[in-house]
Design brief:
binds fe (ii) ion, 323 residues, binds 2-oxoglutaric acid, Jelly Rolls, alpha+beta
């Protein structure tokens, strides 16, 4: 499959929730909801410009992230979380030979980060906890706002908004090494995210690529102030496949390491994924059976599915037989 070097993903500027330009139900809100929906249906992603998160906070966050990755390997390995994709992955580990990453649950909570920082640094690291928790609180707000915009974009009403999936957020910090040859090299394999959605942010070094619906790879160059919102498998299932779970990967070249972080919206334990009845009709028959999120998550990361095409796992797990 080739490259489309001209294509850019949609860019949407989102005002702060409940600010003058962002009152639910107003024309302005509806028109932004429509743009979000179109981007999620056509591309499965968009660039979010969101001024509430300052460039200063981003700089502080990336400085904290670098300090974490600079720690000795033995220290980083002290952090253990048995859930797949929630723990620490060293370079040359399961995920890739160029990437290193760690997942942090409850990262908007200063105290929960405090116990993590005490595990990593002899005297803890309040500055790390402060910048990461402040960033995460804002990303949680932004993620919830986009979730509400998606529900409203389908005109589903208050009841659906109330019963929309409940999420917890997982923060992942990532470091990608510059490839030894300096040549264009895959650093994170193509995949779709096994959650509802993700908000990504990178520190100036590009590398993220997305695959369009017609199979072209597109390099994403978010501007320094932006985030990238991505639809994962669960939003695709919830929307009865109206939304597109975007396949993406990271490619590295040149001499500089790349740092990024992602806030994943993950359905809480016990969530049953089910399309609202308004999104199922004769023209849109139900694509997936109702399923338990945690069961799907464990299936996706099972040994048997390890080398299976990530974007097809949900279809293997929950697609309805075609009559
Ligand atoms: O580092 C990035 O930009 C992408 C990370 C990603 O796709 C993931 O962790 O699922
Ligand atoms: Fe991803």
């Amino acid at each position: 499959m080739g490259y489309d070097s001209q294509l850019r993903i949609p860019i949407i500027e989102l005002p702060l929730m409940n600010s003058e330009d962002m009152v639910r139900g107003t024309d302005k809100w509806q028109s932004l909801c429509k743009r979000v929906r179109e981007a999620c249906e056509n591309f499965g992603c968009f660039e979010v410009v969101y001024d509430k998160i300052s460039s200063h906070l981003k700089e502080e966050t990336f400085s904290s992230i670098r300090q974490f990755f600079d720690l000795p390997l033995e220290t980083k390995k002290k952090y253990v979380n048995p859930k797949p994709y929630h723990g620490y992955y060293e370079v040359l580990g399961l995920l890739s030979s160029l990437s290193e990453s760690i997942g942090l649950e409850h990262a908007s909570n200063f105290n929960s980060l405090k116990s993590f920082s005490q595990l990593m640094w002899p005297n803890g690291h309040d500055h790390f906890c402060q910048s990461i928790s402040t960033m995460m609180k804002q990303l949680e707000e932004l993620s919830e706002m986009i979730g509400l915009m998606i529900v409203d974009s389908y005109g589903l009403g208050e009841e659906a908004a109330e019963s929309f999936l409940k999420h917890y957020m997982l923060l992942r910090l990532m470091k990608y090494l510059a490839p030894p040859s300096g040549e264009y090299t895959n650093a994170l394999i193509p995949h779709t995210d096994k959650c509802s959605s993700a908000l990504l942010c990178e520190d100036q070094i590009a590398g993220l690529e997305i695959e369009t619906k017609d199979g072209q790879w597109v390099k994403v160059f978010p501007s320094p102030g932006s985030f990238v919102f991505m639809v994962g498998d669960i939003l695709m299932a919830w929307s009865n496949r109206r939304m597109h779970a975007v396949k993406h990967r990271v490619m590295m070249k040149g001499k500089k390491d790349r740092y990024s972080f992602a806030a994943f919206a993950i359905p809480v334990e016990g969530s049953i994924i089910k399309a609202p009845k308004e999104l199922v009709d004769e023209d849109h028959p139900q694509v997936f059976r109702d399923f338990d999120y945690t069961d799907f998550f464990n299936f996706s990361y099972s040994e048997e599915m390890r080398y299976f095409d990530s974007s097809k796992k949900l279809f293997v797990y929950a697609a309805q037989p075609i009559n």
